[in-house]
Amino acid sequence: MMFDNRYLSAEKLVAYLDELSTPFNKTEIGRSVQNRPINALQLGAGPIRVLMWSQMHGNEATTTRALIDLFDYLQHKGAFLLDALTLYIIPQLNPDGATAYTRHNANGIDLNRDALMLSQPESQLFRRVFEAFNPQWCFNLHDQRSIYAAGPNGSPATLSFLAPSADEGRTLTPARKLAMEVIGSIFGALKDDLPQGIARYDDAFNLNCVGDYCTAQSVPTLLFEAGHYPEDYGRETTRKFVFSALCAALHAIAKPETRPSYETYFKIPENQTEFVDVLIESVDLNIDGIWCYNQQLAIQYEEKLAEGHIQFLPSLNAFGTNLSARGHLNFKFLKPESCFLSEKEDVKNENHRNLQILLQKLNK
Fold it and tell me: CATH number of 4-273: 3.40.630.10, 3.40.50.300, 3.40.50.12780, 3.40.50.920?
């Protein structure tokens, strides 16, 4: 299974940015560990300053692709927003991770856990931008895994949002309430087109996380998480919803009188970890000579970069007679069939082959 558009290397993004016309002011603002350029775009002349950054986790490109859609919108139908807003956008904070398709940067550091240590050049760069631009709003743009549901027994969480906490007590500070109002505006704008598919991310406080740090500095911050939409592993449909969410958020910031009460935020269901990619039922397993009958197999895809493409490889997540997980794809053998699974090194290749056979049956 292969989804090319999940991969957005630094070189591809730079080529796109180089083609952008005015009113976009593209500037190289620094370099990554591996000396790749990190670019920013500044546009608009309004009094409200909004800072956005995407792909601080290199393998999370859906929001970056949605930013590309936003750039087109701001050149045409959405140009009026630039009278109210000044946008400073870093489309790809982690170009090394983007090119290698890894969460971490080239030094193996999660940039979203480096807000205090500032151990990495990308983190130091972000802090300089944050202090120099002095934003009044921040958008922290990410992808989330396909495991989340929008509330207990809910639909897949295609979009999740968070107004990050500013302290251990998760106090509803003025900055948090403002972020909640804008998230409420997004929810109101998208809930008819994405019913049951919008969730609220966990708000446990961690000052090492960039969004929490920004909120702790009294800047209203919105975390965007692009998730799974049914049968959309390329995340093209999700990309469209992220674009719509970005537009709704900017409209709500430009026109605060349109925003609902912050209490609307708490009507959004919380993320729940409930899904696996594939759930297979009625399988008999022989594990080191012991038979386990009528088992469920929970399979999760692992994303791997191979020759410039993202491959989704099946990996056994769990098995048992009564798993709590739900599958995005569900399959039940009409007659129980057997496959041999073991954790021993000498049969790992056989395990992979058997799982591939199972998935080939699913795709028929």
Answer: 3.40.630.10
